[in-house]
Amino acid sequence: MGSGNGLVLPDQPRMVIGPGTAAQLGGLAAELGSSRALLVTDPGIVAAGHVSGAIASLEAGGLTVRVFDRVHENPGADDVEDAIAAAQSLQPDLLIGFGGGSSMDTAKGCNFVLAGGGSIADYRGVGRARGRLLPLIAVPTTAGTGSECQSYALITDPSSCQKMVCGDPKALPTVAVLDPVLTMTQPQNVTANTGIDTLAHVIETAVTTRRTELSWRYTRHAFALTLKALPEVVEHGGRLKPRADMQLAAALAGAAIECSMLGAAHSAANPLTSHFGVVHGQAVGVMLPAVVRYNGQDLASQAIYAELIGGDPADAPEVLATMIDNMLALIGLPRSLGQFGVGLSDINRLAADAAKQWTAQFNPRPVDANNFLQMYQSRLGAE
Fold first, then answer.
1. Is 91 helix (H, G, I), strand (E, B) or coil?
2. pLDDT (tens digit, 9 = 90+) per residue, 103-154?
C-alpha cells in the first residue's frame, strides 16, 4: 500500500497521492461517515480489474456498494439519468467517480440531480446547484481531464451535440485519489490522447482572460511535468514515475482550469468530436498550434508564452506552436485535419459551431466564426 502522501491545494479536494492509494478507498469513505456508495465507472475500467479492488476496499470499510458501469465517452443526459436510476433504490450517501473524465462528470451530474431534482439540463451554467450535494470521491484512472480538481460536469446535450457546462463550487470532489498504478493499464493511444489534453489545458489556462496568480502557479508546474513525462509514458508505459508525474500534472492543470477556464482550442475541438467522432485529446491537440499562433498576435499572450518556455516574446508563439506539433509527432498523434476526413467543404460548419462553444468567451483574443474558419483551414494540411 502506498503511503497516501497528501497535497494541499487552495480551494481544492483533499488529495491522496501515491502508488496503492486506491486501496485506501474504504477508509477514506468511512472517514466521511458514509455507509452506502454508488460507484460510477465504465465497462473498460471494470474489465481492467480496478473496480473489484475498489469494491473490496469499500466493503472492508463497512460500506454497501452499488456499481453503475455503463458510462459512455462524452457522456450525455442519458448517462446521468441511468446513473440516477441505479442510485434510487440504494439511496447513497456517497458518490465515487472512478475512471476517466466521463465517469467523474457523470458522477457530478448525478449529484446535481439527486440533490435538487429535475434533469441535468436544469443545472446548465454556473451556481445552479440545489439542495445538499453528496460527498464525492474522484479516482482518476487516466491522466488527462483533471476533472478530479474541478467543480464542473461536461454533459453532451443530445439535441445540439454541444457540451452542457454544469458547474457549482458545491460539486467539487471532496477527495481526489491519485494512484498512478491505475493508469498503468491504459493502452498507448489512450495515454497519448489524455496526455495531450493535459498539455492543452496547461497552455490554454496560461493565457485566458480569467487567469490568476494561483492558476499560473498550477500551470507552470503542470507544464514542466508534462513536457518531460508525456513522451516517457507513451514510449515506456510500464514506468511508474512518469505515470505519477503525468497524473499529478493532469490534476494541477484541472486545478488551473477551476481558476481560469479554457479557451479557443477547446471550442475548436468540440465540433470535431461531435461531427467527425474525433477523440477529444486528438481534436484539441490538432487545433492547439493554430490557436497558439492566433493568440500569439496579442502582446500579453506573447509575454506569457515566453515566460512559459523562455526566449524572446516575439518568437515565443511560433516556437511553442512548433513544440506542440513536434510533441504530436513524437507521441504518434495526427497533425492534420485531413487525417480525420475533414475537408475544405466541412470547415464552415465546424467554425460556426466552434464560435458557439462556451470556452471561446475566455480566449485572450476575441474569436468569432471567421477566426475559427481560418484556424481550421490552417490545419487542413498541417502535416
1. coil
2. 999 999 999 999 999 999 999 999 999 999 999 999 999 999 999 999 999 9
Kind plus residue range of the DSSP H or E element containing 321: helix 316-330
Mean pLDDT calculated for residue range 168-193: 95
State how far the Cα of 207 lies from the Cα of 104, in Å rounded to an integer: 26
| Amino acid present at 214 | L
Domains recognised in the chain with CATH numbers: 5-183 (3.40.50.1970), 188-379 (1.20.1090.10)
The per-residue pLDDT of the chain, averaged, comes to 94
Contact criterion met (CB below 8 Å) for 181 and 20? yes
pTM above 0.90, yes or no: yes
Provide φ and ψ at 173, rounded to 5°: -55, 145
Do residues 353 and 275 make contact, with C-beta atoms less than 8 angstroms apart? yes
Instruction: With both helix axes pointing from N to C terminus, report the angle between 347-354 and 369-379 in degrees, rounded to the nearest 10.
Output: 130
For residue 5, the SS3 value is: strand
